[in-house]
Amino acid sequence: MELKYGCNPNQKPSSVYVKGSDTLPIEVLSGKPGYINLLDAFNGWQLVKELRAETGLPAATSFKHVSPAGAAVGLPLTDTLRKIYFTDEIISGDISPLACAYARARGADRMSSYGDFIALSDICDEDTANLIKPEVSDGIIAPGYTEKALEILKSKRKGTYCIIKIDKDYIPAPIETKDVFGVTFEQGRNELKINADMLSKVVTKNTKIPDEKLRDLIISLITLKYTQSNSVCYVKDGQAIGIGAGQQSRIHCTRLAGQKADNWYLRQAPEVLALQFVDGIRRPDRDNAIDVYISDDSEEVLADGVWQNIFKVKPNEFTREAKKAWLATNTDVSLGSDAFFPFGDNIERAHRSGVCYIAEPGGSIRDDNVIETCDKYGIAMAFTGIRLFHH
Fold it and tell me: Would you say the CATH fold of 175-266+327-383 matches that of 26-166?
């Protein structure tokens, strides 16, 4: 299949194929995918397929630049999540489990999900398509589409929205290759199955990890399996709420993901839920205004002559003290790391974002310091013994 171009417009020609076969495991139903689109599509599909297999729930992910901005399973949305994900603007009442998964995956980090590539574990239904329709997105991959869902999605971007159907039974070759600088790398595919057995070695004084937290830790680890390393993932109630990817230092991953998790929780604060936006504001402008309002640069949207273009009523300042008090109410967050934590500072930062459960490989010469820091806060931590680097 010929592509528009490679990673950049100057990289031509560009194409994809399966070695030793004259067929691809995908069918393009609309649009024309690019090189990065397909990297996101194939990584995203593997992620949601694995989440579906392990949790038994429909799964969705929102990919950007070969890492997930969000990933989730199809648990029902609370009234607060319906509000911060703006689903009621599109569909009133209950929505399908797959649509719940997509709303959670897209809503965790809406700024990063802008222009995403979506992957769904199940056949795309009408509810999910309706939620996708107004969002800025490059494309979608799923094992199929209902007739109505396909009609809705084909109307996006004047009929050029990229829609891909993948063969759900496709099994790739066990050996994968990659060319870099004219040199071919070869390795066995990462077929590691992530499940609760991997979380049986709890090394902290607190050894109790409830079933729903085991599920969340599994979601974090499966998400990390398809996230550019180094990477850390915070999960709560069946969805990733903060993903830190591609940082050279693990503490920077932990801080980045923690800040995203904090932003997700701040969006649920009464001060934010009370914001009254002007009629007709664009969805990206609204999302950006919320992110700025909860940041330390809130004056950028509260200044006279500015707020009138965004809000019907000038909001009160969301003070640092009020934000700190609200964040202190967040708890029961789970965290996964794709490699060991080398220092206890990662645990200190995770604790500030409500982390109570951790899964990491272990194996650092400072494991004792990391465990000691967990014990200080009553955090339960499991050593998986498995690294999850992805490049």
Answer: yes
Strands (E), 302-354: 333-337
The CATH class that applies to domain 26-166 reads: alpha beta
Residue 215 to residues 54, 212, 234, 314: CA-CA distances in angstroms? 9, 5, 13, 41
State the catalytic residues. 64-65, 230, 391
What is the CATH T-level fold of the domain 175-266+327-383, as seen in this structure? Cytidine Deaminase; domain 2 (3.40.140)
Residue 358, beta-bridge partner list: 335, 381
The DSSP bridge partners found for residue 271 are: none
Note the pLDDT tens digit of each residue in 51-68: 999 999 999 999 999 999
Cα–Cα distance, 60 to 44 (Å, whole number)? 8
Asked if the model's pLDDT at residue 12 lies above 90, the reply is yes
Distance CA 112, CA 169 (A): 31
CB 74 within 8 A of CB 53: no
